[in-house]
Amino acid sequence: MIRSQVHKAIQPLNRRVITSLPAQSVIWDSEKLLKQDEEARKRAQYFFSHGVPNKAECKLLATLLQKHNTEIKSFPYLFLYEWSPSNMMGRGDAVFASGEGGLVVVEAKAKHATKHVTKQSLFYRQRLLEEYPHSSVSAAILTHRGFAWTQKESEQAENPVQLTSVLLPCGRRGIENLHT
Fold first, then answer.
1. Does the bond joining 133 to the residue before it have cis omega, within 30 degrees of 0?
2. How distant, in Å, are the alpha carbons of 43, 45, 54 from that of 39?
3. Which terminus of the chain, N or C, has less C-beta within 10 A?
4. Which of 85, 166, 167, 87 is nearest to 95 (CA)?
5. Rounded-to-integer distance, Cα 122 and Cα 80, Å
6. Alpha-carbon separation of residue 165 from 14, 66, 70, 86, 168 (angstroms)
7. Beta bridge partners of 83
8. Largest Cα–Cα distance of the chain, in whole Å?
9. pLDDT value for 160
């Protein structure tokens, strides 16, 4: 994805990049999480409607954002969408909150290979751990193969099942233009 596309997509959204800071000590109140979820979903819909970062990745993430999603049922609140860590290195796809101090970062790529996506997911997990030190932070990936906890997380997760039947393959169109 070209930087100007990102800039254009962000401009209408208060002309700023969403970062995970400032970290708040009391973010687990259900009222605050519902408001955060509502704002993050609006942001996601805007990105989906513009196909940013690309249509195939948007389709994967839109499926994940469905209200009754089994993969992340313990994390019902969308906390951040298309966000940058405070060090401004990279752009994470989605962070979900449990309401009890737990966060899961989900990195999505419209491809079948998982090694690079897993590295990115773990990178963003580390950033969230630094910015929300009192939280339990997990990492997961979403590709054409489906949703999967990173290996480190699957050992600790309640349901470390890799579900591929939930997501339909999006094809290979647009994969050449993926951002990293």
1. no
2. 6, 10, 21
3. C
4. 85
5. 16
6. 37, 15, 11, 35, 7
7. 92
8. 42
9. 31
Q: What is the spatial distance between Cα 66 and Cα 63, in angstroms, rounded to a whole number?
A: 6
pLDDT tens, residue by residue, 53-97: 899 999 999 999 886 678 888 999 999 999 988 888 888 999 999
The 10 Å Cβ neighbour count of residue 137 is 21
For residue range 29-52, what is the model confidence (pLDDT) as tens digits? 889 999 999 999 999 999 999 999
* Chain centroid, CA 164 distance in Å: 18
Spell out a b/e string for 94-124, using b for 16 or more CB atoms within 10 Å of the CB, else e.
bbbbbbeeebbbbbbbbbeebeebbebbbbb
b/e map of 80-92 (b: 16 or more CB within 10 Å)?
Answer: bbbbbbeeeeebb
Cα–Cα distance measured from residue 180 to residue 116, given in angstroms and rounded to the nearest whole number: 9
Q: How confident is the model at residue 2 (pLDDT cuts 50, 70, 90)?
A: very low
Evaluate whether 124 touches 143 at the Cβ level (below 8 Å). no
Whole-number Å distance between alpha carbons of 17 and 99: 24
The DSSP bridge partners found for residue 147 are 142, 163
